[in-house]
Design goal:
By secondary structure, the protein is an alpha+beta fold. It contains 27 helices and 32 strands. It has an eight-stranded mixed β-sheet with strand order 8-7-11-5-4-14-17-16, with no helix packed on it. Strands 19-20-21-23-22 form a five-stranded mixed β-sheet, with helices on one face. A four-stranded antiparallel β-sheet has the order 12-13-18-15, with no helix packed on it. Helix 5 (456-472) crosses helix 6. The longest helix is centred in the last third of the chain and has 31 residues, at 940-970. The two termini are 47 Å apart.
C-alpha cells in the first residue's frame, strides 16, 4: 500500500469524535478482580484524577449525518486547542435490522485552552512544605529559579485550591519586584502575577508563600486515614499529582514538558516518617516548634507530576539490588514482613531493566510505599512509588496466588516507568500511551523472566489483549493517540486503549522486528532523549533505525486510527499446496462493514498442523487483499493465521477451515494461545452477528478436557458474557446447566485441595473453576463451600487464600441474613486490606433483594473506604437481582457520589458496571436521559460506550435468543 494512501486514511480517521472517559484501567492500566473472572472490575496503575469540564450537560437528538471533531493543536506553542463540535454518532440495528437509527448525544462544548506561555520557564524549585495532620492545613513556601526568555510584565503558572499569601520576583542583583496584582483563574487553573513593569530577559527568582488543604479527594497533597496499632484513628499526608494535580500542592509550571530540578524540604513531627523522591541529606529540629526539618537531595530534571512526598507512620524492609541501588518497601506499622515479596521483586527488576535497556537506574534509592487511601493502583513517582495496600503487600497466609502474581506485574510496571516515562517523558498528554502502553508491555517481559512458572505471556492475551479488542471495536472507542487540550480532557485517554491496546500493538511490533533489534532501538531512544521529552514519532524513528524496517509507516496505522481490522481467510487446495486469500476490513461490534476506506499495515504470520509452534509464513498485509501459497500443506491439515495471538486483529475463518481445528482443540495439539485465540475470535464474530451463538456453544464443548488455566480464563470470559445476556431470558437455568456440564471434568481433576508439587497455574485454575461452578449453582460445589466456610469461621480449618473469594460468593449466593452478618463480622475483624476487599466484593452475590439493599448502604458507610465503595456497589450490579437495584441506587445517590469523587476514574467505573449489562432500547434511552440531566465530568465516553453496549446486547438477544433456547433445551 503506498504510504500516501495510508496517510490519507489516517487523517480521515483521526477526525473520529473522541470524548472524556475513564482511565483503567488505568486501566487505567487495570487491576482486575482475577479471583472472580466473571466480569472483571479494575483499578488504574499510575493513577490520574479528573477536573471539572465546562458545559451544562448532555443533549439528545436524532440526525442522519455524522459530526466530527474539528480543531487544531500546536504542541510547540501556546496556541489554543479548540473543539468546534463534540458530537458523535453510532448506528443501532433494531428488531429485524432493517432500519438504521443514528442516535447522537451532544457533548458539552470543550473549553478553549492555551498551554502556559514559554516567556518564563522554571529551572529549579526550592520547595518547603509543613503539613499539619490535625488541622489538615499545610503551609508552603518556594523559591523558583526562573529564566525569562522574552521581556514580559506577567508571570503565568498553574495553581489550584491554594491561598497565595505573598509573591515577589527577585533579580540577580538582589532587587525585588512586587506584583501589582495576582489573579487566580479557577477555570484555567492558573495564577497570573502582573508586575506593572517589564521583567528583563535573564534569570531571577520567584518567591511564593501559600497555604492549602490536605483534602480528602485523593488528589494533590491529601490526607489518608489509617488506624494505629493501638486502635487510634490517624492520618498521613501523601501526594498524587498525575496528571495535573501538583498545582494543588504548590504553584508550578504543571506541564510534562516544562521540567526542572527540585530541592524539597519537609517540616514534620519528630515521630513521623518523611519521604520524597530523593534521599534525605540533612535533618534538624526547628527550635520554636520542635518539629523535624528534613531536607532532601536535589532531584534530576523532571516533570512536576512525578514529584512526591509522604509524611506518616510506617515500617520498612530494605535490601540492595545487585547493581547497588537501595530499595525500601514501606508498610503500615507492624506489617513490615508483608513487604518482603515486593522487595524481592523490586531488587530483581532493577538489574533486569538495567540489562534490558543498557542504562542504569539513575537515582541512588527507590522506595515503594503502601498507602491506605489511594484512588489508583499505583503511581510511578521517581524514586518514591506509591501503591494501594492491595497492590504491594503480601501476607503468606492470606494472599492469593493470583494477587501475588498481580503484585509482581504492578511492581514491574511502575519500575519500568523509572526509565520509560521518568527518564524520558512524553511531551504532552497526547502521547501518554508512550508511557503507559510501553510499561504495560515491558512488565510482562520482566515477570516472564523472573517467574517463568506464571506463563505470563499466555495470560497477557486474556488480561490485556482481549480487553483492548473488546473496547476498541465499539464506535465510541478512540485512537491510541488522541489530541488533548484542557486538563479536564486528559483523563479521557487513561483507559484500555492507551494501556492495553498500546501494550498489544507494541507486543506485535516486538514480534515483527525481533527482540534484539527492539532492545537496540529502546537503548537508542532512551539514550538519545534522556531527561527530555518526546513524541511518538521519536520512538518509531529509533526502532526503525535499529531494525531497518518501516516501523513508522506500519505503526502509524495502529496508533492514529481508531479500531482494528478483521482478517478474513479463505482457502483452496491446489495439489499438495494450499492457497489462502487474506483480506482485511475494519471490525465493528455491530457487524457493520463500513471501513471508510481505512487500511492497516498488518504483520501476518501463519502456522500449520505440521509445525504448530512455528511460523511457516509471514508477510505484511498493506492492501485490501493478498494471496499466499503454502507449499506442501495437505488438505486435512489445519492452517492457523496469527499463531500465538500476537497480531492485534480478529481472524474469521470459513466453516471448513474452522472444523479442522476441533480435533486439535480436543487433543490439545493446537497450542494454548491458539486455542484461546480461536475461541475468542469466534465469540467476537458471534457478538457482531456474523456467526450464530449456537456455533460457539458447540465449539466450547470441544474444550471439556482443557487443562490450561489461561484457556479456561478465556472460556470463562465468554461464559460470563453469555450468562449476563441470558439472564434477561426465562431460560437462564438451562444455560447454567450447560456451564456445569462443561466444567465438571476439570473440576473433578483438580478437586478442592492442592496436589503435591502442583503448578502455579493449577492453583489459579482451581479458584476459577470453583468460582464459576458456584455461580452456576452447582449443588455439590455450593454444599462443599458451605462446609468449608463453617470450618473457616469456627477456626477449625482456615480456607486457603486462593479459595476464599469463590467460597464466600458460593455461600452468599444461597445465604440469608445470618450469612450476611457473619461476612460482616469477618470483614470487621480482618486486618489485611486484601481480605476486606475480598469480602466486600463478594457481598453482591447474595440472592435476597432486601439484603442487597443493605449491601448498598454498607458500601456508602464509613466502614468502607471511598476507594473501595464503587466496587461493593458493582458487586451488586453484576447480578440479575441486583442490576436494577444498583442502577436505582446510583441515581438516588448521584449527588453524594459526585461530591465524593468529583467525576473521574472511580465514578466512571461505577457508571460502566451499573449500566452496560442491560439489554433493551428502553434502558439505553433511560441511561442517556439520566446523564443528559446529570452532568458527570469524566464519564462521558463511558456513558456512550455503555449505551452502545446495551443496544448491542439488545440486538444480540433479538437475533439469537430462540436458537439458543432450542439448542440448550436439546441437551446436546
Amino acid at each position: 500500500m503506498p504510504l500516501v494512501r495510508i496517510a490519507c486514511c489516517i487523517i480521515r480517521r483521526a477526525r473520529e469524535p473522541v470524548f472524556v472517559g475513564h482511565r483503567l484501567f488505568r486501566y487505567r492500566y487495570s487491576l482486575f478482580e482475577q479471583e472472580n473472572r466473571f466480569r472483571p472490575t479494575d483499578i488504574r496503575v499510575s493513577g490520574v484524577t479528573t477536573l471539572q469540564l465546562g458545559g451544562s450537560g448532555y443533549k439528545l437528538s436524532d440526525q442522519r449525518s455524522t459530526s466530527c471533531i474539528k480543531g487544531r493543536t500546536n504542541y510547540e506553542s501556546s496556541a489554543p486547542y479548540l473543539h468546534i463540535s463534540r458530537d458523535f454518532e453510532y448506528s443501532v440495528f433494531r428488531a429485524l435490522g432493517t432500519v438504521n437509527f443514528i442516535h447522537t448525544l451532544s457533548m458539552p462544548e470543550s473549553k478553549p485552552f492555551e498551554r502556559l506561555p514559554k516567556t518564563v520557564i522554571p529551572k529549579h524549585y526550592d520547595l518547603q512544605l509543613k503539613p499539619d495532620l490535625k488541622t489538615f492545613i499545610f503551609e508552603g513556601q518556594e523559591t523558583v529559579k526562573i529564566e525569562v526568555k522574552q521581556p514580559t510584565d506577567k508571570i503565568i503558572l498553574n495553581s489550584l485550591d491554594l491561598n497565595i499569601k505573598s509573591a515577589k520576583y527577585i533579580l540577580l542583583n538582589g532587587n525585588s519586584i512586587q506584583p501589582l496584582s495576582s489573579n487566580i483563574s479557577v477555570e484555567d487553573e492558573t495564577l497570573t502575577l502582573s508586575f506593572g513593569e517589564i521583567i528583563p530577559v535573564g534569570e531571577g527568582y520567584l518567591e511564593l508563600h501559600f497555604t492549602g488543604e490536605l483534602n480528602d479527594k485523593m488528589k494533590g497533597f491529601y490526607r489518608s486515614k489509617y488506624v494505629s496499632q493501638d486502635g487510634e484513628e490517624r492520618y498521613a499526608g501523601v501526594t498524587q499529582f498525575e496528571a495535573t494535580d501538583a498545582r494543588r500542592c504548590f504553584p508550578c509550571w504543571d506541564e510534562p514538558a516544562i521540567k526542572a530540578t527540585f530541592d524539597i524540604t519537609l517540616i514534620v513531627p519528630e515521630s513521623k516518617v518523611a519521604l520524597s523522591n530523593m534521599p534525605a541529606v540533612s535533618e534538624d529540629i526547628e527550635a520554636e516548634t520542635g518539629l523535624r526539618v528534613v531536607k532532601f537531595d536535589t532531584t534530576p530534571i523532571m516533570s512536576t507530576y512525578l514529584v512526591a512526598v509522604v509524611v506518616g507512620e510506617y515500617d520498612y524492609v530494605e535490601d540492595k539490588s545487585h547493581d547497588g541501588v537501595l530499595v525500601r518497601v514501606y508498610t503500615p506499622v507492624g506489617k513490615r514482613e508483608q513487604g518482603r515479596f515486593a522487595l524481592y521483586v523490586a531488587t530483581k527488576v532493577l538489574p533486569y531493566y538495567k540489562d534490558y535497556f543498557q542504562i542504569a537506574y539513575p537515582l541512588p534509592k527507590i522506595d515503594l510505599i503502601a498507602i491506605a487511601d489511594f484512588s489508583a493502583g499505583a503511581m510511578e513517582n521517581w524514586g518514591l512509588v506509591t501503591y494501594r495496600e492491595t497492590c504491594l503487600l503480601v501476607d503468606p497466609e492470606n494472599t492469593s496466588a493470583v494477587r501475588k502474581q498481580w503484585i509482581a506485574l504492578v511492581v514491574g510496571h511502575e519500575l519500568a516507568h523509572q526509565w520509560f516515562g521518568n527518564l524520558v517523558t512524553m511531551e504532552w498528554w497526547t502521547h501518554l500511551w508512550l508511557n503507559e502502553g510501553y510499561a504495560s508491555f515491558v512488565e510482562f517481559l520482566c515477570v516472564a523472566h523472573l517467574f517463568p512458572e506464571y506463563d505470563i505471556w499466555t495470560q497477557f492475551v486474556t488480561d490485556t489483549y482481549i480487553r483492548a479488542l473488546e473496547l476498541d471495536c465499539l464506535k465510541n472507542s478512540h485512537p491510541i493517540e488522541v489530541p488533548v487540550g484542557h486538563p479536564s480532557e486528559i483523563d479521557e485517554i487513561f483507559d484500555d486503549i492507551s494501556y492495553n491496546k498500546g501494550a498489544s500493538v507494541i507486543r506485535m511490533l516486538h514480534k515483527y522486528i525481533g527482540d534484539e533489534d527492539f532492545r537496540k532501538g529502546m537503548n537508542l531512544y532512551l539514550t538519545r532523549h534522556q531527561y527530555r521529552n518526546t513524541f511518538t514519532e521519536d520512538l518509531w524513528s529509533a526502532l526503525e533505525e535499529a531494525s531497518n524496517k518501516p516501523v513508522g509507516a506500519v505503526m502509524s496505522t495502529w496508533t492514529k486510527q481508531m479500531g482494528f481490522p478483521v482478517v478474513k481467510v479463505t482457502n483452496e487446495q491446489m495439489g499438495n499446496d494450499r492457497k489462502l486469500v487474506i483480506t482485511q476490513e475494519k471490525f465493528c461490534a455491530d457487524g457493520s462493514s463500513n471501513s471508510n476506506g481505512c487500511l492497516w499495515m498488518i504483520p501476518v504470520m501463519i502456522s500449520t498442523s505440521e509445525k504448530p509452534g512455528e511460523v511457516v509464513h509471514h508477510t505484511v498485509l498493506q492492501t485490501h487483499s493478498v494471496e499466499v501459497i503454502l507449499k506442501n500443506v495437505a488438505s486435512h491439515e489445519w492452517v492457523k493465521v496469527n499463531p500465538g495471538t500476537v497480531g492485534y486483529y480478529r481472524t474469521q475463518y470459513p466453516p471448513d477451515m474452522l472444523a479442522q481445528f476441533v480435533d486439535a482443540i480436543r487433543d490439545k495439539t493446537l497450542p494454548p494461545l491458539d486455542r484461546l485465540g480461536l475461541l475468542d475470535d469466534l465469540f467476537a464474530m458471534v457478538q457482531a452477528g456474523h456467526t450464530p451463538t449456537v456455533e460457539v456453544l458447540k465449539l466450547m464443548k470441544a474444550f471439556s478436557n482443557e487443562d490450561n488455566y489461561t484457556v479456561w480464563s478465556s472460556i470463562s470470559n465468554c461464559l460470563s458474557k453469555l450468562s449476563i445476556l441470558l439472564s434477561h431470558t426465562e431460560y437462564e437455568d438451562l444455560f447454567k446447566a450447560y456451564g456445569r456440564q462443561l466444567m465438571q471434568g476439570v473440576a473433578a481433576r483438580l478437586g478442592w485441595d492442592p496436589q503435591a508439587n502442583e503448578s502455579h497455574l493449577d492453583t489459579l485454575l482451581r479458584s476459577l473453576v470453583i468460582s464459576r461452578l458456584g455461580w452456576f449453582g452447582d449443588e455439590a460445589i455450593v454444599a462443599e463451600a458451605q462446609k468449608r466456610f463453617e470450618d473457616h469461621v469456627s477456626g477449625k480449618a482456615l480456607l486457603p487464600a486462593d479459595l476464599r473469594s469463590p467460597v464466600y460468593k458460593a455461600v452468599l449466593s444461597v445465604g440469608d441474613e445470618s450469612t450476611y452478618n457473619t461476612m460482616l463480622k469477618l470483614y470487621r475483624e480482618a486486618d489485611l486490606h486484601e481480605e476486606k476487599d475480598r469480602i466486600s466484593r463478594a457481598l453482591g452475590a447474595i440472592g435476597d433483594v432486601t439484603i442487597l439493599k443493605k449491601v448498598l448502604q454498607f458500601a456508602m458507610s464509613d466502614e468502607v473506604r471511598s476507594q473501595d465503595t464503587v466496587f461493593v456497589i458493582i458487586s451488586v450490579a453484576m447480578t440479575k437481582r441486583g442490576r436494577e437495584l444498583a442502577w436505582s441506587f446510583f441515581k438516588e445517590n448521584w449527588q453524594e457520589l459526585m461530591n465524593r469523587y468529583q467525576g473521574g476514574f472511580l465514578l466512571a467505573r461505577l457508571v460502566k458496571y451499573t449500566t452496560e449489562n442491560f439489554a433493551s432500547e428502553e434502558h439505553a434511552t433511560e441511561v442517556e436521559a439520566f446523564f443528559r440531566d446529570h452532568y458527570s465530568p469524566g464519564t462521558e465516553r463511558t456513558v456512550q460506550q455503555s449505551c452502545e453496549t446495551i443496544r448491542l446486547n439488545a440486538a444480540w438477544l433479538q437475533r439469537d435468543r430462540e436458537n439458543i433456547h432450542k439448542y440448550l433445551s436439546s441437551g446436546k
